[in-house]
Amino acid sequence: MGEIIIPQGYKSALNLHDTQVAIKTVKDYFQHELTHRLHLLRVTAPLFVQPETGLNDNLNGVEHPVSFELKDQGTKKTAEIVQSLAKWKRYALHKYGFSEGEGIYTDMNAIRQDEVTDNIHSVYVDQWDWEKIMSPEERNLDFLKSTVKDIYEALKNTEKHMADQYDYIETILPDEIFFITSQELEDRYPDLTPKEREYTITKEKGAVFIMQIGGVLASGERQDGRSPDYDDWSLNGDLIVYYPVLDIALELSSMGIRVNADALRVQLKECGCQSRAKLPFQKSILNGTLPQTIGGGIGQSRICMFFLRKAHIGEVQCSVWPMETREVMDVMNIQLL
Length: 337
Prior knowledge:
The protein is an alpha+beta fold. The protein has helices spanning about 15-40, 85-95, 140-165, 180-190, 195-205, 260-270, 280-285, 300-310, 325-330; strands at about 40, 50, 65-70, 75-80, 105-110, 125-135, 180, 205-210, 230-245, 250-260, 295-300. The chain has nine helices and eleven strands.
């Protein structure tokens, strides 16, 4: 269990029944805003994939996917619960015959058994995964920033909508999101850790998109880990907002322009996992079968938590929690779903 933050004097403004109503309000409104701005079509998505396809997200490379044996496959076969749909979405756009400028989104539900739970982390992950086909000419920072701004406008409009619906909610998101690279951030705060830098810039600016996540910085550290075979580390980033209820930097989305063949080769080599190039998904990038795309994940429970001003993610999602967490929540009269 991670450290639990209990805000002084915190009390949920909504009971369990009204919280469920508000969760649906947030999700319905934001989905409409997101799909309208990015021109996305809703699709169904897998809960599990077979590891030999290379479609599962390896995250930071140290997490262990939840797996199980498929009993009716003849020979012994294993399936893994997805850790995200970062790779599957790009494959789906090709398989389903989508064209340039078109995109998809879906509910992604995952189990991350290695997650250390706290106010904003759960072993159950629920997010909107989205992906869109782009032109080769759009493979640049300007296009990435433009897409981030579209998503940020959807977030701002959702906050305004919730403030109109509930009198205890005030709008706190700034008018514009601030862009900075991970190296610029390190240069700005060289004596801070990556997480301390993230918190400091986010509290100062209110909403930040930290770009170029995954590669090694001048200090020899990484701002954060990234799997080498979906985002291009020079064209990605995290969308983070300051959350005053907990006094933290709250990541709402991770996204980026996806690897092309050149970026994939470089990043696989840097991570020492060139063997992945033999897997079907990775081979399809190297041989040019898959389209060039941009995509990301947006945390559903985190967005609900932020817009409803909740202190713990368990107030907006059903999961399992350590006994110590439940005892603390009971003492503080914070009701978990």
